[in-house]
Design goal:
mainly alpha; 2 domains; 23 helices; 462 residues
């Protein structure tokens, strides 16, 4: 094994180990990036400034792109929490569905949001204050909320379900010239397996936690009022800010789907607005979140007295999740520029494995090394996918199975989305990653392998 490849593997393993030991993820990402730079012989300035900080997958590139989304998402979460709107919605759900169904509620709500096109980071910020109240009432550990959040927002709705507008599905569609519903039955089957397996695991863990006497414990920054407070706004009124956010994000897409692309033609105000909304995957949700926060300030008198202070506290809530996530993304940016990474890609394409297994392995390894499903899938589509098409693999089957494969090993402890979720929920890898790992790695990988087998048996691979 060359020193370059050894350094890459050692750096990824070290980052995972440090994360699981509770070491600060920003420090860990920098340390492991330095290990990659030294063992791969990269110039220090190129490795740290160009690749880690400012490259296509650089930390500041990511932070700059998603800054507004994190800030407006955190502001909205703070507003929904301080106004007790989230508590009001949680109480209404508990009264109608029962507190013991808190994990089901979280999973299905997140799934509907992400399948409707809402960005994962928005879902995390929007659901957290609501989830806290549900967990408080049901006395369920926060670690299981993280797992339910991951199941609904980061598994079957992102990679498996046909038609999902997720970035992973779009990357495969653009790369292969297929539509978003490619591999319909394979995706539907994989999605059902991921959902069913995830819900079974969550309910099993909930029962075990109850038997052990393990219950809800708030984080140091969680602000919780009594669940029986009669001063909470009515749940219908409390739902309006969240409805504003979701409708602002989803309605433009629905109009285009219903009326066709011709609605975007012309110079009318509506056409320009719809074009802008559908072309801005980060700025438009940020505008929606801001609209939701402003709506809450107008609706709830308790917020208006100190509205600017509340919004300011929300911006502070965004800083650590943004920096932590960006640091891990920057580590992936260094890795993709190394000799070791190129060696791995070459080895995978030249292996004698059956094409389906080779494809699964290639996507999984690249996504694992970069810690990103979208990043790993983008690299695969640009560099390796043409080889599999030339070997006779059906493009629609490749689309769906590669997309599903990207959503397995990407979620190892150094995954940026995992780091962001744990930072926002104030949990450590030691506390919550075991459950998140089962939900986002083990179950999706098993579901994808099952669909690989189904494709091989039915000849769907071409």
């Amino acid at each position: 094994m060359s020193i370059a490849l050894f350094g890459l593997i050692a750096a990824v393993a070290l980052l995972i180990w440090l994360a699981m030991r509770g070491i600060d993820i920003v420090f860990a990402a920098l340390l492991c990036a330095l290990l990659v730079i030294v063992t791969n012989g990269l110039p220090l300035d190129q490795g740290l400034i160009k690749n880690f900080a400012l490259g296509p997958l650089g930390a500041f590139t990511f932070a700059g792109k998603f800054f507004l989304l994190f800030v407006t998402g955190a502001m909205f979460g703070r507003v929904m929490g301080d106004s007790h709107a989230a508590a009001s919605i949680a109480l209404a759900l508990v009264r109608r569905l029962g507190a013991h169904r808190a994990l089901w509620i979280t999973t299905l709500a997140c799934a509907l949001l992400t399948y409707g096109g809402v960005v994962v980071f928005v879902v995390i910020f929007a659901m957290y204050p609501l989830g806290l109240r549900l967990l408080q009432e049901a006395d369920i550990p926060k670690r299981l909320f993280c797992a339910a959040l991951a199941l609904g927002a980061g598994t079957f709705t992102l990679t498996a379900m046909p038609g999902t507008p997720s970035i992973q599905n779009v990357i495969s569609s653009v790369g292969l010239g297929t539509d978003l519903f490619a591999g319909f039955w394979l995706g539907l089957g994989g999605g059902v397996l991921m959902f069913a397996g995830g819900i079974w695991y969550l309910e099993w863990q909930r029962r075990l936690a109850a038997e052990r006497g393990e219950g809800f414990e708030p984080g140091p920054r969680d602000q919780l009022a009594p669940m029986s407070d009669d001063s909470y706004p009515h749940w219908v009124l409390a739902s309006l800010p969240m409805a504003i956010v979701l409708l602002t994000i989803i309605v433009p897409r629905v109009i285009v789907l219903a009326a066709g692309e011709q609605v975007l033609e012309g110079s009318s105000t509506l056409a320009q607005l719809l074009t802008f909304a559908n072309a801005q995957p980060v700025l438009w949700p940020s505008i929606a979140l801001t609209a939701g926060s402003v709506t809450a300030l107008l609706l709830f008198s308790g917020l208006r007295r100190h509205g600017l202070r509340t919004l300011g506290a929300g911006t502070q809530d965004a800083i650590m999740p943004l920096i932590s996530t960006a640091a891990v993304i920057g580590f992936g940016g260094v890795i993709t520029q190394t000799e070791g990474f190129q060696s791995i890609a070459q080895t995978l394409t030249q292996s004698e494995l059956p094409p389906l297994i080779s494809m699964f392995t290639a996507v999984s390894v690249i996504s694992a090394v970069t810690g990103s499903a979208s990043g790993g899938l983008q690299i695969f589509m640009q560099t390796l996918a043409p080889t599999y098409i030339e070997q006779g693999m059906d493009p629609e089957t490749l689309h769906r199975l590669a997309t599903m494969a990207s959503g397995g090993f990407d979620s190892l402890p150094h995954c940026g989305a995992v780091v962001a979720m744990l930072t926002i929920t104030q949990l450590t890898h030691r506390q919550a990653y075991r459950d998140v790992g089962v939900i986002t790695v083990v179950i999706p990988v098993l579901a994808t392998l099952t669909m690989l087998g189904a494709a091989a048996m039915t000849g769907a691979a071409g």
